[in-house]
# Entry
Amino acid sequence: MQVTAETSCVTAVQLMKSQGIDQMPVVQPLQGGASGEVEVIAVISMGALSKRLLTNPDQVDAPVFPFASTKFVVVEPTATLEEVADALHAYTDRRYGDMGVVIVAEDRGACVRA
# Structure
């Protein structure tokens, strides 16, 4: 499950609700990659969208990217629990309620930030 930077906030909320998830990657086509290959540029969460839309309900059709977080780390499926915990801790910003996000991907190079 993923969205693009241009996906509307309401569509992202509907996708997350229908799949029972509270966050998902925001992707764009991988430059120079094969057709269908994407790179992760951010992560959008139900919490971030809910907070924004409760105070700005007129933005339900706005693109998700301005409300997404670029704070994420990519680990391989072989990462240890300690490595994942360290990654989460490093990317958590408690001042704003942002939690760290870890993306598990076999090809870490395909999950490059913009």
Observations:
- The chain has three helices and five strands.
